[in-house]
Write a structure and sequence with these properties.
By secondary structure, the protein is α/β, with parallel strands linked by helices. Among the domains are: 9-91, Calcium-transporting ATPase, cytoplasmic transduction domain A; 214-417, 3-Layer(aba) Sandwich (Calcium-transporting ATPase, cytoplasmic domain N), CATH 3.40.1110; 729-856, no CATH class. It is built from 32 helices and 29 strands. A hairpin with a 2-residue loop joins strand 14 (314-323) and strand 15. The relative contact order is 0.11. It is found in: Cell membrane. Residues 2-101 form the P-type ATPase A domain. One of its GO terms (biological process) is intracellular potassium ion homeostasis.
Length: 917
């Protein structure tokens, strides 16, 4: 109606005219028609760490980079503007990203696939055995009830009933341990998946970096200073804020600013700064160097301001600052080239002298040094306004421009960056040592992404262009084997072939920059198509589709968006990237312990199944029935198997040096593609997803599976790497320990019968003649008389001895359970001895087996990676007074780190000053 009014964002429709200003959240996708110094923070949507200028003009073809569009969910951090709503709700870019997240299918975890495969095999064996033994039981006894009970016993013997509970409980305990290390597991299977990942695709802004611009270097008075503790030999630490030039940089950072605070009753370090990210970084720097920041602003009040704009590329303020010739000081900051052109003098060699070509050369050298590290560089200048021309009460006017616009004194350069979080460099190094390929997928600029990558051990080698520059050859002539690192722009992905993707993922060091949410989703999908188990970390809305598609999505709790946390399977509660290494270590340990637990659980199948077979072949009395088997598997053995949850690693120092259990190689890729070809008929070519099946169809296919060639091709396919249930585990459980346990149990059973005067041959004869039953006649032969009651009693004692060898003592010696489980509490403790003897034999066998395997089948370790920098990232700037206190012990620490850096640089073949500071 021609008037400005406030309405609910949900009531906006396309065509509405919207006004935005500093501090507002963009309510829809909007086309800008008018603006004044409008800047928006797109970091949650695109990953760009710096604010983006927006206005009516645009030359970009990528919608996410269009300078005349602002998107729903982003924040206005500077200026103001008017725009027309073009999309709302689910139609916005934010809504489309949410749609990508909801459309992604949940992928089965590696643990689910392996256990599912094992269950299919063992279920097939169990069902066939049950059917066969039911038929045999009918032939022998012609008793349907007996045959059913017999078939159930055989089925129960083969099925490890305690396996699901054991796996679930072990994963639960591991998840609980991870929660104490600030890792929240939303899906239990994620614990194992984290230990199995072969690739970690990570966002940059807010995940690897703080998403907080931080001042790093100052160049003033001809010297380069570091704002934080550093091992950079080219920079001196700021130990005194009164140093000539440094104090002026601090003053300009505090006064030449337009930031606002959400509240002022807490220290500056804890305030939420509203405004441009660069100005916020300068404000934090100044606040930690000034004794009383708030009073400093009051004492040096701003009387005039020219805001930053994209035309001038600078910001100017005039403040009340007492100096030798007056009370007003002009401060200006902005693009270095623009500021230098406005200056006629420079602070150099502890004095102010005319700006000469020599100083300009020094300026250029320092500017390029800072920019080469991926920093954002800003110049600062000043002018002391004389009182005779600008007295108290003088009114400065922008239109009249009644203030100097030149002849400034150049103060210096300051550089800012979004620094890596503390511990990220060491964490990336540990991940690479563990054989995990770490790639960066960001929406930020390629040069910025590469600069950060080199600081955090993600990139150590040369890119194709760097090799060309070093060798003086054309880029096109550089072979694939001559470089290790690649930095790919998101716009290149649309034209890449399958061969291009293969080449990229075979490089050890990869960065994808300027990527959209769809690009990130495609990158994850492509990596998975090669057999990678992909973990994705991120905190923004733009990361959520990739988080959902990945095998394990890891979101940030503090800085993460609600959409990203919903899409993820795991959340880092403290946003500490290094916690991922703890999770991977825990995942690898739980995999080791799961194998041990499954070995223990499955090994009981043989001594449970053999008695059923002996009943048919010999026959011997039914030594152990279905109820006893279930009581062992779900009762006593379950608790014993859970003890492996607390089992430490046999080689803890090498746990994070092991090759991933399913490494991606050319051989594994070819095998995966052959498997995909076999199952091509199940895939919809339009969606590239399996055809949907009804529940009945799934059941029918599951039943038919074991009788098809395709099923056994998949089952018998040779596996590369370490799988949960492999030939070694099957051999150990069924052929080795299973047989030893069977012999031990059978020996105890036979000994108990013999003690009662029943030999094995007699037991065989009596079973054939129908003895050992509740209605059996008295056995009387060769002077031996055994009544029906004694037959049952002796058979129960023998079964108890067998049971005892299976650690089921409670069922044996609790009288009220004897009738239920066909045991006898009268069993003499002397029958413990065979069980103990065979237990000792098992211990000796297992220990000898371990020593043999370690000698003849040593564990495969990852080769060392040259050039990893694993010393602490001490250059990470603290946001409070600790950074001042830490300077006191700087000398000795920097000396140590200089030596470490020099040694590390020599190892890489680079100069020390080229290493990340």
């Amino acid at each position: 109606e021609g008037a400005l009014s406030e309405i609910e964002a949900s009531t906006l429709v396309p065509g509405d005219l919207v006004f935005m200003r500093l501090g507002d959240k963009v309510p829809a996708d909007i086309y800008i028609v008018k603006s004044s110094e409008l800047q928006v923070d797109n970091s949650s949507l695109t990953g760009e760490s710096e604010p983006q200028e927006r206005g009516p003009e645009n030359i970009q073809t990528n919608p996410l980079e269009a300078t005349n569009l602002v998107f729903n969910g982003t924040n206005c951090v500077s200026g103001k503007g008017y725009g027309i709503v073009i999309r709302t709700g689910d139609s916005t870019v934010l809504g489309q990203i949410a749609g990508l997240t909801s459309s992604a299918d949940d992928r089965p975890s590696p643990l689910s696939l392996e256990i599912s495969k094992f269950v299919k095999i063992i279920s097939t064996v169990a069902i066939l055995s049950a059917i066969i033994f039911f038929i045999v039981g009918q032939v022998i006894n012609n008793d349907i009830a007996f045959s059913i009970n017999f078939a159930i016993g055989m089925f129960a013997a083969w099925i490890p009933e305690g396996l699901p509970a054991t796996v679930t409980m072990l994963l639960t305990f591991a998840a609980k341990r991870l929660s104490k290390r600030n890792v929240l597991v939303k899906d239990l299977k994620g614990v194992d998946t984290l230990g199995a990942i072969t690739m970690l695709a990570t966002d940059k802004t807010g995940t690897l970096t703080k998403n907080q611009m931080t001042l790093t270097y100052l160049w003033t008075n001809g010297n380069l200073y570091s704002a934080s503790i550093t091992s950079d030999k080219n920079a001196e630490p700021i130990t005194d804020t009164s140093i000539f030039g440094v104090s002026d940089c601090i003053q300009a950072s505090a006064l030449c600013s337009s930031v606002k605070f959400d509240k002022t009753d807490v220290p500056v370090a804890k305030r939420n700064i509203i405004g441009d990210a660069t100005e916020a970084g300068l404000t934090r720097f100044a606040a930690t160097r000034l004794d009383d920041y708030d009073n400093y602003l009051v004492d040096h009040a701003k009387v005039f301001e020219v805001p930053f704009n994209s035309t001038n590329k600078w910001m100017l303020t005039i403040n009340k600052v007492q100096h030798e010739t007056g009370i007003h000081k002009l401060l200006i900051k902005g693009a270095p080239e623009r500021i230098l052109r406005l200056c006629s003098s420079i602070m150099y060699n502890n004095t102010v002298e005319p700006l000469s070509d020599a100083e300009k050369a020094k300026f250029t050298e320092s500017y390029e040094y800072m920019a080469s590290k991926g920093h954002r560089v800003i110049a600062v200048a000043k002018s002391d306004l004389p009182a005779d021309k600008y007295p108290e009460g003088y009114v400065f006017d922008k239109k009249q421009q009644n203030y100097p616009m030149g002849d400034y004194t150049f103060v210096g350069l300051v550089s800012l960056e979004d620094p890596p979080k503390h511990g990220v460099r060491e964490a990336v190094g540990r991940l690479r040592t563990a054989g995990i390929q770490v790639i960066m997928v960001t929406g930020d600029h390629p040069l910025t992404a590469e600069a950060i990558g080199r600081k955090i051990n993600l990139i150590l080698g040369e890119t194709k262009s760097e090799v060309a520059k070093r060798t003086g050859r054309p880029v096109e002539s550089i072979g694939e084997d001559e470089y290790d690192a690649v930095v790919i722009h998101g716009e290149e992905l649309a034209t890449m072939t399958d061969e291009d993707w293969d080449q990229i993922f075979h490089k050890p060091e990869v960065i994808f920059a300027r990527t959209s949410p769809k690009n990130k989703l495609e990158i994850v999908t492509r990596a998975q198509s090669l057999g990678h188990i992909v973990g994705v970390t991120g905190d923004g809305v733009n990361d959520s589709p990739a988080l959902k598609q990945s095998d394990l999505g890891i979101a940030m709790n503090v800085s993460g968006s609600d959409v990203s946390k919903e899409a993820a399977s795991m959340i880092l509660l403290d946003d500490n990237f290094a916690s991922i290494t703890n999770g991977i270590e825990e995942g690898r340990l739980i995999f080791e312990n799961l194998k041990k637990s499954i070995k223990y659980t499955v090994s009981h199948s043989v001594p449970e199944a053999i008695p059923q077979i002996l009943y048919i072949l010999v026959p011997f009395p039914v030594i152990i029935g279905a109820l006893q088997i279930i009581s062992i598997d779900l009762g006593f053995e379950l608790f014993n198997s859970l003890s492996f949850a607390w089992e430490p690693s046999e080689a803890p120092e090498s746990l994070m040096k092991l090759v991933p259990r399913n490494p991606v190689t050319m051989r594994s890729i070819m095998q995966l593609r052959e498997r995909n070809e076999r199952h091509a008929f199940e895939i919809d070519p339009e969606t590239n997803k399996p055809y949907p099946k009804s529940t009945m169809k799934k059941i029918v296919d599951t039943i038919k599976g074991p009788f098809t060639r395709l099923f056994w091709q998949d089952v018998t396919e040779k596996k590369h790497g370490d799988v949960l249930i492999d030939k070694d585990l099957m051999s150990y459980s069924y052929l080795e320990v299973g047989l030893i346990m069977t012999i031990g149990c059978f020996f105890s059973w036979a000994l108990a019968l013999n003690y009662r005067g029943i030999s094995l041959n007699m037991a065989k004869t009596m079973t054939k003649d129908g003895y050992f039953k509740d209605n059996s006649p008295t056995y009387n032969e060769n002077g031996t008389e055994i009544t029906q009651k004694q037959q049952v009693q002796y058979a129960r004692e023998a079964s108890s001895a067998y049971y005892l060898a299976a650690l089921s003592m409670a069922i044996v010696y609790l009288p009220f359970l004897n009738n239920i489980f066909n045991t006898s509490y009268t069993l003499s403790p002397i029958w413990w001895l065979p069980s103990i003897a065979f237990g000792v034999l098992l211990l000796i066998y297992y220990s000898g087996r371990i020593l043999f395997l370690r000698k003849f089948r040593p564990i495969q370790m990852n080769p060392d990676i040259r050039g990893l920098q694993m010393y602490p990232t001490i250059w990470s700037t603290r946001g409070n007074s600790e950074s001042q206190t830490a300077i006191s012990g700087l000398g000795r620490r920097v000396g140590q780190l200089d030596a470490a850096q020099t040694e590390n640089a020599e190892y890489q073949g680079t100069k020390p000053d080229q290493s990340p500071h």
